[in-house]
Design brief:
By secondary structure, the protein is an alpha+beta fold. It folds into four domains: 117 residues, Beta Polymerase, domain 2 (2-Layer Sandwich); 84 residues, Hydrophobic Seed Protein; 179 residues, Hypothetical protein af1432 (Orthogonal Bundle); 51 residues, no CATH class. It has 25 helices and 13 strands. The strands form four sheets. Strands 3-4-5-2-1-6-7 form a seven-stranded mixed β-sheet. A two-stranded parallel ribbon has the order 8-9. The protein has a two-stranded antiparallel sheet with strand order 10-11. It is elongated and about 90 Å long.
């Protein structure tokens, strides 16, 4: 591992260190797998804060003496050894492939649990069941490593994860969020979401999903609600992968989808998560009417429940709001499409209410359509979805008539002699609709419209 020890910050640490220094964990694992990494994990017998004097660093976990130093594109984590020896430290870790150390000063690997052999065989094996119990987040991490690496989970470890799955409920929401969204960020994460289901971890993280088991749907993909939600998640990944093909004329869609909404999470991950939750309120709104299954209001109620799930997982307020908006509005494209010829007024209202999130909502609706009705339903809805996207980029964003009223709220109140309140918002909405229809193009026309429609505070 000379390529690491020759790096300038490590050379300084080696020179300053009076005891032994070890490169450990994911750094060693990736080196042995010939994967490049910019993250280096170091274990020392000394106090890391003293060793890092002269470096710019900050604490990750002061109690356990773990500190981080960022040097250019390099992230170096330095931790105090847990245990009397490096072997004791390694035997406290999660998986054997992460329990290998490189003794920098002696130039040898230390492998007390057979991690190098497991790496060679592509096996992900827990160092011990006790280690999984001590930190339940490791149950989720197993699935993430399985997804990102050429590993198969050892049968005994898989059995232990399933048996210990209730423990994930005790893990901090922030840590669950971090691991879960690292899984969701993978472009083909559907198979990992399925595995989370099989290991009974997903329903522990999102217990609302359990109510979807056995609730008949009769969809193209998925007989019950839970399987339909999983199919919609898979469909969202298919659409994201072929986005350029379906919406080739609008490359800015990728800018919207790939924008970071909070640290480490992009809009695309919130979209996929919304696909998993879009019908989350169907069990609560299920009623049989005239021998038909109905779920009236499941979209609105689902939006509320999605926000609560987001809060529980410690997602940012912005992420929670977008997630709730997507779930609440996932039916709108379908409903618009069924209305025959759609006016610019209706399209403008859609994007005025949803703005940029409207573009993401359209992709969610298409994912739902693909999972619900297969290619037939998807390709029926696609032309209208393209029409809406085209309207947003080429008309809505370019013509102020769709976004900015010709009269401000203050002007409206002065002209009609009314006080602030819901009526002002109602008038602004009516004014924007009239502008979108082309009935009003100038300020004097807007004033006349106001006097004709709302002179008596009615309309």
């Amino acid at each position: 591992m000379n390529e690491y020890t020759k790096l300038e910050p490590l050379k300084k640490l080696i020179k300053k260190s009076k005891g032994n220094l070890y490169i450990v964990g994911g750094t060693v694992r990736d080196f042995l797998l010939r994967r490049k990494t910019h993250d280096i994990d170091i274990v020392t017998e000394e106090d890391p804060s003293k060793l890092l004097k002269g470096f710019s660093f900050f604490p990750l976990d002061e109690e356990r003496k773990i500190f981080r130093c960022i040097h250019g594109n390099l992230t170096i984590d330095v931790a105090r050894m847990q245990g009397k020896t490096i072997e004791e430290d390694l035997l406290r870790r999660d998986f054997t492939v992460n329990a290998v150390a490189y003794d920098i000063k002696r130039g040898v690997f230390i492998d007390p649990s057979g991690g190098i052999e497991d790496l060679q065989e592509g096996i992900l094996k827990a160092v011990s069941v006790k280690n999984l119990e001590e930190d339940p987040i490791r149950l989720l991490r197993a699935v993430r490593l399985w997804l990102y690496y050429p590993f198969r989970i050892h049968p005994e470890t898989q059995k232990a994860i399933k048996e210990l799955s209730p423990l994930i409920e005790k893990a901090a929401g922030e840590r669950v969020k971090d691991e879960l969204f690292k899984i969701i960020a993978h472009p083909i994460s559907y198979k990992a979401i399925r595995l989370l289901c099989e290991l009974e971890l997903l329903e522990r993280i999102i217990p609302e999903l359990s109510a979807g088991k056995g609730l008949f749907q009769g969809k193209f993909c998925g007989s019950d609600l839970l399987s339909h939600l999983l199919c919609t998640y898979r469909a969202s990944e298919i659409l994201l992968h072929y986005l350029n093909y379906f919406f080739n004329a609008h490359p800015k869609i990728r800018e919207i989808i790939n924008a970071e909404i909070e640290t480490g999470i992009k809009i695309r991950e919130i979209l996929k998560f919304s696909a998993l939750l879009h019908d989350i309120a169907k069990p609560q709104t299920f009623v049989i009417r005239d021998d038909e299954y109905t779920f009236w209001g499941h979209d609105k109620e689902g939006g509320k429940r999605a926000k609560l799930i987001a809060k529980r997982l410690k997602l940012s307020n912005k992420s929670a709001k977008v997630l709730g908006t997507l779930v609440e509005n996932h039916m709108r494209l379908h409903l618009l499409a069924r209305g025959g010829e759609i006016t610019d007024k209706a399209k403008g209202r859609f994007f005025r209410q949803l703005k940029e999130t409207g573009v993401v909502t359209i992709i969610l609706s298409l994912s739902d359509s693909l999972a619900s009705s297969g290619e037939l339903g998807f390709f029926y809805l696609l032309p209208f979805a393209r029409q809406m996207i085209d309207f947003y980029f080429n008309k809505f964003l370019k013509e102020e008539d769709f976004q900015k009223p010709l009269l401000s709220g203050y002007e409206i109140m002065a002209i009609l002699n009314i006080k602030p309140g819901p009526l002002v918002g109602k008038i602004i909405k009516a004014l924007l609709d009239a502008q979108a229809e082309g009935r009003i193009k100038r300020k004097d026309e807007a004033i006349r419209f106001l006097k004709e429609e709302f002179e008596n505070g009615e309309g």
